[in-house]
Amino acid sequence: MRDLTLPSFRSSLPGTVLVLLASGFTASAQNPLAIPPTVSGTEIDLELATGTVPFLPGAATQTMGVNGPLLGPTIILQQDQQVTLNVTNHLGEPTTIHWHGMHVPPEADGGPHIVIDPDATWSPSFTVLEQASTHWYHPHLHMHTNAHVIKGIAGLIIVRDPVEAALTLPRTYGVDDLPLVLQTKQFDAGNQVVVGGALDTHVMVNGTLDPYVDVPAQMVRLRLLNGATERVFNLGFTGNQPFYQIGSDGGLLSAPVTLTRLRLAPGERAELLVDLGALQGQSIELVSFGSELPAAIYGAAQPGMGMGQTIPNYTSNPLNGNDFTFLRLDVGAPTADPITTVPATLVTLNPWPEASADATRSFTFTPVNMGPTAIQGPFLINGAPYDMMTINFDVPLDNIEVWQLTNQSPIAHPFHVHDVQFYILDINGAAPPPNMQGRKDVVLVPAGMGTVRFITRFEDFASEEVPYMYHCHMLTHEDAGMMGQFRVIDPSQGVEEGIAGNGLVVAPNPAVNQLRITLDPALGLGTLTVTDLAGRAVLVHKEVAGPLRLDVGTLPSGGYLLTFRSVKGTATSRFVVGRE
């Protein structure tokens, strides 16, 4: 394995300050904030390797990183460009890399099925279809996602486009446009990272403990990522300094939203503008106001809903239910050409009207165990844990769908879906606040029968072979099975008579009254499901084996997807019911 040393990132001048927060904690800002380097172009090389970082006095911490020992470079992409990302794995163990928030083909998505073996290189290529936005990349190996992320593999992706370029916004990277990866970690007595522990008492920004950064006295843009395992942050500035949220997960909002607090769940991103023009020579702190988090959110004083809900070591963590500092901003002289204003409007958003939806799907979150340990998990989606061999459902290409999420567990869960950005319709029946009305790919679903509904469209990419994922973005929950997978299927493909799909043949095609089905005998007994173009199951037959005849005479004319699933495998094919 390769052992890399800590790279020299651009940083601020030395300095130390003590900040006493309302909670009574003393925070020292003594380390210059590391600013990750950038990479760009049509071909980008990313090398995953182990390394060491001297976080604490004594033994160095064993880490993982991309092009360095910790975290990774910020990838700068242009809308509509073609890019190839050469990801080489020198970790000594398998992993994956997922481009979180990016709309890419499933073969390039980097989910659990796209494993990069040790010393192998994976080179996905795709066209950048995103609007100007901030995304991130991280491993997604089933049951190992948290370990690889918390040990250091994570980096930002910035997409630029002509619309954003025409706005008067800060965009000098590392000067008035700062990337901020927010994390908390737990270390053991030997200074090694603890995976899955609840004593994540060390607060980091860009892998820097107790950081400070020099910023100019003007409008400064902060690109925030909650890269933590489980913790929800409630962000704001000391003195209740107002700020403007200009972007969410999938890009810019229609107009800036003035805030003093921003709740950011694991996996979520936000772009902020903060006006430092009147603060030259002063300092302010970016703080998580955990004392203001309501119950049943990880990071609040009470993490669960209902009496007696406990998480081991949770009450021993001084961050829970208290305020703590992430970053001190030391305000110096403005730059030669400062941005001093906030645009009145940003971009035009076009959410799909709910009436245009082709289908509605329901997802219910439940704990495996009831009672006082329910909050500890594991948790299920629609009553089942993740199974890499099970496709939970198929979505027809170009479907517009409403997804309804119901959380029957005692803790809030950040729900993430791959492939698409969505618009939130309502949270607990109420319209989302203005800063959550943009494009999103993560949403925090409230505990105790809380509900969220969103609308999205599955366009551009389809595959019978590789699925997309949906899951809780609390990485411990995801690794324990709070995840599912779906395929996007193009109903217009493969309707010729006798087409085979992984051991399944149907004829005649188009069919009028009956469909002859031939199955590979090796598949054994299984369940046969027919879904229409809206993704609705219209016929289901259990414990069947081929060959067999299927009565389709009662089905309306149109295209259908036939899926056979057994413990030995899955086979699919498409057919058309056609009548004159």
CATH architecture assignment of the domain at 354-489: Sandwich
Question: Which term fits the overall shape?
Answer: globular
Task: Outline the biggest β-sheet.
Answer: 7 strands, mixed
The CATH homology group name of the domain at 354-489: Cupredoxins -  blue copper proteins
**What is the typical, i.e. mean, pLDDT?**
91
Break the fold down into its secondary structure elements and pairings.
Elements: E1 3-4, E2 17-20, E3 26-29, E4 31-32, E5 38-39, E6 43-53, E7 61-66, E8 74-78, E9 82-90, E10 98-100, E11 121-122, E12 125-127, E13 133-138, H1 145-150, E14 155-160, H2 162-165, E15 177-185, E16 202-205, E17 208-209, E18 211-216, E19 219-226, E20 233-237, E21 243-248, E22 251-259, E23 262-264, E24 269-275, E25 283-289, E26 323-332, E27 359-367, E28 379-381, E29 393-396, E30 400-407, E31 413-417, E32 422-427, E33 442-445, E34 450-457, E35 468-472, H3 475-479, E36 483-489, E37 504-507, E38 514-519, E39 526-531, E40 537-544, E41 548-551, E42 558-566, E43 569-577
Parallel strand pairs: 1-6, 4-18, 5-8, 6-9, 8-14, 15-19, 18-26, 27-30, 29-36
Antiparallel strand pairs: 2-3, 6-7, 9-11, 9-12, 10-13, 13-14, 15-16, 16-17, 19-24, 20-23, 20-25, 21-22, 21-24, 25-26, 27-28, 30-34, 31-33, 31-35, 32-34, 35-36, 37-38, 38-41, 39-40, 39-42, 42-43
